[in-house]
Design brief:
Layout (H helix, E strand, L loop, with lengths): L5 E7 L13 H11 L13 H22 L8 E5 L12 E7 L8 E4 L6 H4 L31 H7 L5 H10 L8 E4 L3 H8 L3 E2 L5 E3 L2 E3 L24 E4 L2 E9 L10 E7 L5 E8 L4 H7 L2 E5 L8 H16 L3 E5 L4 H9 L3 E7 L5 H4 L4 E7 L6
Antiparallel strand pairs: 1-2, 1-3, 2-5, 3-6, 4-5, 7-8, 9-10, 10-11, 11-12, 12-13, 14-16, 15-16
Length: 387
Amino acid sequence: MEFASHVSHYFEKEAGPLLSICDLAPEQRRAIIDREKDAETGFNRFSYGEEFFDFRLLADDLLLDLYEGKFGRRPERRPFYGVLGDADVVGGLFRDPHKMRIPVEAFGEGELTFMCPDHFHLVSLMKRDGGGRMFGYQIPNDYSEEAYPYFGKLMTYEELVEGFEALKIDRHLMKEMESNGWYRYVEAQIWADPEVLRREFGSSVGVVPEPWKLHGVTQGSRSVGSAKETTPLDTAGLPEAPSSLSYGGVTIAFCRMTEGDESRGFAPGYHFTIFNARSEEVGHLNFRVGDSEHIRLAAGHIGFEVTEQHRGNGYAALACFAVAPWVAKVSGAVIITVDPDNIPSIRTIERIGAVFLDEVDVPVGDPHYERGSFRKKRYRWVPKKQE
């Protein structure tokens, strides 16, 4: 399988990236807790008060010991945390979540490690007294090293790749994804100089936290930060589509609404059939309305397909120009994704004036990933109300 080649660090925009509450004096920590304890976030750890952060400090200390045992030296600083690839559920920890992406290749020896689930489980694994309540993902009642070989393993990127299946990390992640659980990621510990990382990779993007389930109840289903106007993942409230739209001899006819599936990140939207000037059906176009990791990193907001016998006539681009006024009215700017080797679609996307953003890894477990699409080029399209 193909692995993500970057880590994402999530943070509160107001505070900035690569900070650790464990580095603060007690009075500084209390001030932050008092300020944030009533914040509306997907998971408000500050609402648990000092108890949570005492536990966090203990888990951090155990991680430092594990690092020293692995590399034979004490780390220069406490780690900052991220995830392998992207896991926007983590954005639910913040009021205005942002993330910065850092390539794995940017880290030197001992500057980046990984653990699954996250390091909080070290407290119960090492039979340490947390002083009361336990937080986070702890060892299960049926724990054994044979059943859960990934517990307590501090890994380099190479060790993670090599042991992904042998240590049953793949099974853990799949189980969490299927149940829409919080711990659907591999935690990354960043030990590198934060000043260097801020200087070289300081640009960030706003995050819409993914919802998750706890005991079957959906948590953190909210829109925040720079994406707070995002449409929910259902068809309620979406405007009625025009029956048809035309441009340059091509007509797209509204066919049906497509339902979203919040648990899988599928957004609702509009399905159009594409007809050429001879009224022949030549393909279809989808316009999805909403935001999720699946939309941002795999499917995109606009999708099109032209039947093989009708390709090479520019129908896809003309269909996009036809739908442009409707997209501009409903959503404004949208994301369009494409496989890096799909040259005809890339030409279509460039023809309509979309601007290249980046190339990203498709999340493990996404339907696109499962059918062999591991990378996507992403473009931003701002359609005009009248083309």
